[in-house]
Amino acid sequence: MHFLLLFYFVFSLSSIHSQDDGFIGEEEILQNLVNSTYNTMIRPKIIDSTGTQQPITVSVSMHINSMDLNVQKGYVSVQLFLREQWKDPRLSYQHRGQLIPPFVQMKEKANEDFIWTPDTFIPSQKISKTSYSKHSVIKVFADGLVTCSRFLTITLPCAIDYSRYPMMNVTCVISLESYGFPIHDLDFQWGQDDHHAITLDHLQISPSNFYLHDLSFNKTVSHYTTGSYSTLNVDLHFGRAFGSDLLKFYIPSTMIVMISWISFWIYRNQIAPKAMISMSAMILMFILSTTAANQIPETSYSKPIDCWMGICFLFLFIGLIELGIVAYFDQRKRVKEAQQQNQETLLTGYQNYNHHGNKPYKGWNLRWLFRNDFPNFIDVISS
């Protein structure tokens, strides 16, 4: 009995496959769709209810996976998944059988040779890998709806504002356009749901001290001499956390200035230790400011970190000036005290010689006698 049931089931399946309206495989559907009359160079024709030909609408959405910012060279490298969707009535196969797959999936580079695809490109890109590759998938649905998903790595220039460095602002724009189809032939639109047109789940940003603080997207029309083209724009606004710069530059520079103040507590006649501390602080500050300046390109305007380093240098310079002034007046005081002591010694010796007939003191200053007591100067010389 079981054998008869199994035989009946197998016979029924073979009968279904033998019917003209039976199941059709993906390969057979693809071969039937892409026939000799299908031209990949001609865009799909979209006819409205009035019989007027309308531009083909390409719906776009993307998922941004990672961003790598290079502030030295002023560009960002973005890895994203781009999803485009349009309708090609020539690829509809829902009338070709009762048992058909919901979609036909195509892979590999030959996708662009089989069916028409939008000639999407990014105008501002520096380096791009936007061609269909092994990282792209095209799905053709039974009603002629075509979905193309591909993985892109693009490099874009960014507008970087260093006026608040290290708290800087970076703005990068991703623009999508058609290379050869004007707006009356092809119209780009963001996905139907604006909240899901661009997704950022598990976004990775490098360096880690940058963060994405704002994202906006819009649709515009770009005008060229060859015509007007539909354009989709994604504006990425990055901010920069300055916690690392606080530890690398601001705190060390503050400590260097405070260390230089140690020279103020050293006794004023210790010129060598005071000068060594001040000059060492100046050299360390120079190395630190050079390291900070090498973090970003040169600009025509001053930045907050430049002002900070300038103030630190000013404090160190004032310390060196104070050291020189103190050393000068201390030396002047010492010379004055020595001269006064010498004069007192000479005067005492001279008085002893003048009143008691003692021999002149060997430390007498003959110049002082010549200026102040010339007669006695003659006596001293003659004796």
UniProtKB/TrEMBL annotation:
Matches recorded under InterPro entries: GABAA/Glycine_rcpt, Neur_chan_lig-bd, Neur_chan_lig-bd_sf, Neur_channel, Neuro-gated_channel_TM_sf, Neuro_actylchol_rec, Neurotrans-gated_channel_TM
UniProt-recorded Gene Ontology molecular function terms: extracellular ligand-gated monoatomic ion channel activity; transmembrane signaling receptor activity
Protein name (record): Uncharacterized protein
Signal peptide residue numbers: 1-18
Source species: Mesorhabditis belari
Lipid bilayer topology: Multi-pass membrane protein
Lineage of origin: Eukaryota, Metazoa, Ecdysozoa, Nematoda, Chromadorea
SUPFAM superfamilies the record matches: Neurotransmitter-gated ion-channel transmembrane pore, Nicotinic receptor ligand binding domain-like
The entry's keywords: Cell membrane, Ion channel, Ion transport, Membrane, Signal, Transmembrane, Transmembrane helix, Transport
Cellular compartments per GO CC: plasma membrane
Presence of keyword Iron: no
Pfam families with a match to the protein in the record: Neur_chan_LBD (PF02931), Neur_chan_memb (PF02932)
Residues annotated as transmembrane: 249-267, 279-296, 308-329
Sequence ranges assigned to domain Neurotransmitter-gated ion-channel transmembrane in this UniProt record: 250-347
Compartment annotation: Cell membrane; Membrane
Domain named Neurotransmitter-gated ion-channel ligand-binding: residues: 26-239
